[in-house]
Amino acid sequence: MIPALVIIDMQQGSFTPMTARHDAAGLVARLNALAARVRRAGGLVVFVQHDGPEGDPHHPAHPGWQLLPGLDARPDDPVVRKTACDAFLGTALDEVLRAHGAGGLIVTGCATDYCVDTTVRAALARGWRTVVPSDGHTTADRPHLPAVKIIEHHNAIWADFIAPAGPATVLPCAAVALAVG
């Protein structure tokens, strides 16, 4: 079975000069290449967008809610809207994945230490075989730690996580295999 590519919170409101993200342009290019491979293999690409409250740059009425213009989002790609860090919590994500026959997940996006991390943990807890591309997620520098160290730390945690479906498989975007059968 083909895994579903889940792309989290790659929204304009998270990628501003005030909220610089590590290697944003490189990430968009890698996600587009991975999405093209998933689609060619007959897989599903799901975009998850955060619905922020009124006044938040991610509020659906604000331009910050829109996906980054460089992302290759297609009209037939499902969009799941969320209001918490966990893309499964209170959303139809699990139902969308199962309805399309997803055989596992490839979890990517922004921000490594918030929505990506929470969604990876939730997927593993739900028994989803989960791949996290080591170069398929990003975050910003934090006062206590630079983005590259946050990314490195989370990649190590996910690869050793104890969960029903085992730990996540962590490898670069270009090395993600799309098994059929």
Secondary-structure element order, as H and E? Answer: EHEEHEHEEHE
For the biggest sheet, the summary is: 7 strands, parallel
Average pLDDT confidence is 95
Structural class of the helix and strand makeup?
Answer: alpha/beta
Strand percent estimate: 15-25%
- Provide the gyration radius in Å: 15 Å
Label this structure with key terms.
4 helices, seven-stranded parallel sheet, alpha/beta, 7 strands
Protein architecture, described:
- This protein has helices spanning 24-40, 93-99, 112-125, 147-159; strands at 4-8, 45-50, 79-82, 105-110, 130-133, 137-138, 169-171.
- Helices cover 28% and strands 17% of the residues.
- The N and C termini lie close together (5 Å).
- By secondary structure, it is an alpha/beta fold.
- β1, α1 (24-40) and β2 form a beta-alpha-beta unit.
- Strands 1, 2, 3, 4, 5, 6 and 7 form a seven-stranded parallel sheet that branches.
- The longest helix has 17 residues, at 24-40.
- The model has no long low-confidence stretch (mean pLDDT 95).
- It has four helices and seven strands, in the order βαββαβαββαβ.
- The protein has two domains: 17-42 and 122-181, no CATH class; 44-101, no CATH class.
